[in-house]
Amino acid sequence: MLHSKTFVKKTRGGKVNKQVREHYLRDDIYCGAPICKLCDSSAARLSPSASTILVLDTNVVLNQIDLLENPAIDDVVMLSVVLDEVKNKNMGVYNRVRALCSNSLRRFFVFANEHHKDTFVKEMAKESKNDRNDRAIRVAAQWYQSHLGGAARVLLITNDKENKRKAIAEGISAETIESYVKSLDRPDLLDLVVQPSSEDVEMEEVEDLRPSKRKVIYTEHKPMSEITSGLHRGIYHQGKLRVNRYNPFEAYVGSESIGDEIIIYGRTNMNRAFDGDIVAVELLPQDQWHEEKSLSIADEEDEEEDVHLVPSSADDAPRTTNLVQGSAGDTNAVSSRPSGCVVGIIKRNWHSYCGSLEPMPMPAGSGGTAHALFVSKDRRIPKIRIHTRQLENLLDKRIIVAVDSWDRLSRYPSGHYVRTIGEIGDRDTESEVVLIENDINSRPFSSQVLACLPPLPWSVSSEDLANPIRQDLRDLRVFSVDPPGCKDIDDALHCTALPSGNFEVGVHIADVTNFVHPGSPLDDEASQRGTSVYLVERRIDMLPKPLTEDICSLRSDVERLAFSVIWEMTPEADIISTRYTKSVIKSCAALSYIEAQARMDDSRLMDPLTTDLRNMNVLAKKMRSRRIERGALTLASAEVKFQIDTETHDPLDIGMYQIREANQMVEEFMLAANVAVADKILKHFSLCSLLRRHPSPTREMLEPLLRTAAAVGLNLDVSSSKALAESLDHAVGDDPYFNKLIRILATRCMTQAVYFCSGDLSPPEYHHYGLAAPLYTHFTSPIRRYADVIVHRLLSASLGIYKLPSIFQDRPHLTSIADNLNYRHRNAQMASRASVELHTLIYFRKRPTDTEARVVKIRSNGFIVFVPKYGIEGPVYLTTRSEKGGGEWFVDEQQQKIKKMDGSLSYSVLQTVRIHMEVVEPQPNRPKLQLTLT
User: Fold this and answer.
1) pLDDT per residue over 656-707, tens digit each?
2) Quick one: which of 106, 159, 618, 644 is 20 to 30 A from 693 by CA?
3) Alpha-carbon gap, residue 42 to 49, rounded angstroms
4) What is the mean pLDDT of residues 35-61?
5) Where is the stretch described as Disordered (predicted)?
């Protein structure tokens, strides 16, 4: 059956075209119920013994997804009209619903009501799209009721009062989600129910707190129409809100419209915005702007600070009244930073949060609903009010809570309990928290994904060796150099002296795309995961272990498939020629960085492998020198290395990660391979290559570095990466750690390097600032990065080995893949850092320590220090809330110092101080490493 809709459309040229949209309707779409006598039961997904079948409306799916994911909710019909609406409104929820519908262990059936001749409904005159969709849901529910003939109860679940009223009037059974959950006699499930806030929604329980009795705490958010107009006229400024990790009452919004960061100080000015929200900001009057150094480090007591924290003028010190700003005798010596307040939320970043409930006495007659405050482990997140019937069982647990709403009459946002993670303080529980907070998928790979793998044991076949696209390089002396204990070896090297006096140098990368085929379940999973995640005590793989540690891993003494980049180089490391080939290799050694370095340093060793290492190292040094001459930056990061007990997995020792020449040698050739591949793929695919860029930092971004350098007598030239690199080379002090510290501070001023599709930007924007390279990509780690998998496919196509997959014709889809890779890459970094912080707490819990630290940032009530020995950073307080007089300090912006008013004591940036490190718990269930002066 064909349903046609005719409408007219006006073209840009003013021509009016008549268009016909055809909608095919069928009568052979199955209902999915095995109890049905009319439909083919082989397509059934619902339970044969189902007494009740649920039909959900759109708002229930959008708002109650945490409840729907609970196994207690089953035998659900998901209508196509509902899925389409959910997809348009929230892709995150849509993906979770699709996962439920495709999960063979859950009984969710998708019914194409929009294509069934008995359930399709036409639009009526003067009917809104929302009303039409509600009617379509009711028609489908009524059809199921009639179709099953009483074999099961069909129940429409809706929280919309009007939709429920109409359904009952039409003879359809209908209930609210809360009413249905209560009928299951599962009080624990009621904690998962999101309490609706809309006035037209029927609520089973309403908090007895009338608006007239509640004080307005926050200003009302502007409507989107007003925000859009204000942004256009320059009255408002748009950007992402980032909350300071050391002070949850201080946030920043990077604004392109004014070319600077806007400081948002105090919960009132944040106006219910969460970290990561895209917000509209209005600048405050200039006499209320703040100097950055006037902003303080919040301590744990500040959690109970009233929301009205913003000072009335720039002369009021934030929170601590015994602090003075500016320099002695001139409080206005420093220009203020733009300050503002949030006037509207453009895009929410709400997700699930991990933490615990604030300790509280059990209410009298426990067993009913209790109000509780949830405290996130992330201090940047405000406390969240929830209702729970499980208070007694949850007080000693880490739990997950989702935010539902934040009323402007409420000090705290409202949310609901999602699930329990485990006991507070348990290492496995706390590690799970790290993964959840950073949206890391650590679930086991599905059977569909594992079915894509070749059977084990796997070995190179005669067909592989005979394949004309693949060169046999097993006679080469190939070796790998990796961190100790590395099992997922995705790169190997060779260096052969040629009769001409030149060298043949090869980078051999695991041929992952030989096993991961486009569009397969394995490829889809890798695409979503984006990257492997390295925690202190374990690795979460992007690909299943049989691939990462066996089939693809370039282990020693086994034949493996590779993708090779091979150069002929002069002794001066000048490239004569470059070729690319699929290959078969057999590594002769899998060395650690320490082993490779020891070989190169031992003058007694003259074997061929050691000679190859030394030759490569000589070439790498020349390549590195040339790269630095072009302007590449040598930056530094505070990488921490733990020694872990193999049985308990507790940290035994902690220290800074040591970089050796062997590390730099491998890095140099990986960089060269990535640059060579970027050049090759872009020549063939100018619009759909996946590249990696590093935007140049703005002068404003580098300002903290310049202020710090000037305070210690350094004049850094930041006019180009080359000028900055040379300045950093000359930044040498008496302290042997001084230069590394300056480089760490420089690293923190940089933007993040990001993946992008070449067709989305112009060639000048491809530039990689840190590497001083006009082109760059990632090719060398396909076992652990999906970006490299894409680049392998591009390189294969550029060589004519395989046809380019059709996905590369879809630019918007490529852009979305790049966006996901950037998101996953950043989350993996954040998870790694959080894992380090967790194990640092575990290590120091029983080991209070005195050590040296360097001051890296001055604040009005203390300073931030960096501890070189352990790679740790944290706040040191000079004043506390309880201090009364005699504790007055002021910030000298010019000298980057904080001085006591009587001149008896001062601390300056980059100064060495002695500190005591000890784990304390100023708030229950929130341990922290406290740093105090000794």
Assistant:
1) 667 789 999 999 999 999 999 999 999 999 999 999 999 988 887 888 888 8
2) 618
3) 16
4) 85
5) 296-335
Sort 282 into a burial class: Cβ within 10 Å, 0-12 / 13-18 / 19+: middle
Domain that holds residue 886: 844-933
Lowest-pLDDT range, 433-442, 540-549, 785-794?
433-442
Asked if 796 and 803 touch (Cβ cutoff 8 Å), the reply is: no
308 vs 537, residue with greater confidence: 537
852 close to 884: Cβ distance less than 8 angstroms: no
Question: Chain-centre distance of CA 633, in angstroms?
Answer: 26
In Å, how far are 243, 277, 857 from 378, measured between CA atoms?
A: 11, 16, 22
Q: Quick one: 400 and 474 in the same domain?
A: no
CB atoms within 10 A of CB 826: 15
- Indicate whether 415 and 467 sit together in one domain: no
User: How does 294-318 read in b/e, with b if 16+ C-beta sit within 10 Å?
Assistant: bbbbbbeebbeeebebbeeebeebb
Fill in the amino acid letter for 793: R
Neighbours of 94 (CB within 10 A): 19
- The amino acid sitting at 519 is G
Maximum Cα–Cα distance for the chain, whole Å? 94
Task: Please name the residue ranges forming H helices in 361-461.
Answer: 391-394, 427-437, 447-450
Q: What DSSP character marks residue 932?
A: E
- Strand 491-497 and strand 651-656: the pairing is unpaired
Query: Which residue is listed with tokens 């900001």?
Result: 281
Please check whether residues 412 and 354 belong to one and the same domain: yes
Q: Of 286-300, 489-503, 869-883, give the range with the top mean pLDDT.
A: 489-503
862-869 CB contacts, 8 Å cutoff, 24+ apart? 862/296, 862/297, 862/898, 863/898, 863/907, 863/909, 864/246, 864/297, 865/913, 865/915, 865/931, 866/638, 866/741, 866/744, 867/915, 867/917, 867/931, 868/656, 868/737, 868/740, 868/741, 869/655, 869/656
Residues 868 and 902 in one domain: yes
Phi, psi values for residue 152, rounded to 5°: -150, 155
Q: Which residues have CB under 8 Å from 26's CB, separation 6+?
A: 1, 115, 116, 117
Three-state SS for 264-324 is EECHHHHCCCCCCCEEEEEECCHHHCECHHHCCCCCHHHHHCCCCCCCCCCCCCCCCCCEE
Tokens of 881: 């809330």
Q: Hunting for tokens 């067993």 — which residue is that?
A: 367
CA proximity to 672, closest of 624, 713, 634: 624
Angle at 930 between CA 926 and CA 934, to 5 degrees: 165
Q: What are phi and psi of 238, to 5 degrees?
A: -100, 145
Same domain, 166 and 133: yes
- Classify residue 751: in a domain, yes or no: no
Query: Which residues lie closer than 8 Å to 603 by C-beta, 6 or more apart?
Result: none
Q: Which residue has the higher pLDDT, 730 or 144?
A: 144
Number of domains in the chain: 4
Structure letter (DSSP) for residue 697 = P
The DSSP string of 85-146 is: HHHHH-HHHHHHHHHHHH-TTS-EEEE-GGGBTTT--PPPTT--HHHHHHHHHHHHHHHHHH
Q: Checking phi first, is residue 862 left (phi over 0); if not, alpha (psi -120 to 50) or beta?
A: left
Residue 96 included in any domain: yes
Find the Cα–Cα–Cα–Cα dihedral 36, 41, 45, 50, rounded to 10°.
30
How is the chain split among helix, strand and coil, in percent rounded to 5? Answer: 30, 30, 40
Contact 479, 591 (CB under 8 A): yes
Distance, in Å, from the CA atom of 872 to the CA atom of 876, rounded to the nearest integer, reads 12
pLDDT over 70, % of the chain: 86
Residues 773-807 have pLDDT tens digits of: 999 999 999 999 999 999 999 999 999 999 999 88
Structure tokens at 472: 């046999």
Question: Cα 114–117–121 angle (5° rounding)?
Answer: 55
Token pair, residue 187, equals 């009080």
Residue 704 domain-assigned (yes or no): no
